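Morning F.,

Quick status update on the modeling queue. The single chain you submitted on Monday has been processed. Sequence for confirmation:
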Amino acid sequence: MNRGEFLTRLSIWLALVAYATAATLLLQPRGHPNWRGCARWAWTLGCAFFLVHVLCAFAYFHHWSHAAAYRETARQTGELTGWQWGGGIYFNYVFAAAWLADVLWQWLAPRSFARRPAWLSALWHGFFFFMVFNGTIVFGHGPVRVLGGVICLALATLFFRHRRSRLTKHQD
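Structure tokens below.
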């Protein structure tokens, strides 16, 4: 493994671990001390590592070429589905921009962020989960597929437990 591949892989692994940490903290009971601050830092680190991953992928794999990234996305999609389509690269662009916007919103306007509608938060985290699932399980290979599976299963379990406990509290 060369330096570029190592940095690209390491940065996505660190982003995944930070994402899982932040999401786990966000699903903890509200009484947990400092859970919001720790989650915000983990979320910020995850975003930073993801942006490093994108930069490394473009530098070391695509030579700063969107066309090359599009072709590689089309090739990988074609191998998996038989349909040569590179448009998935745009989901990655939206994902990077949305994660960065989310982090900036948390830091620059924390009160506004805390009051954002539940549907917006659910939509964002659903998109995030979709991207992690596809990036690790559907398109991933080897250990990243296992890590992605563990993260997705653990977070889905935590989410449904959290949801069930909230529903139970509302029924009482």
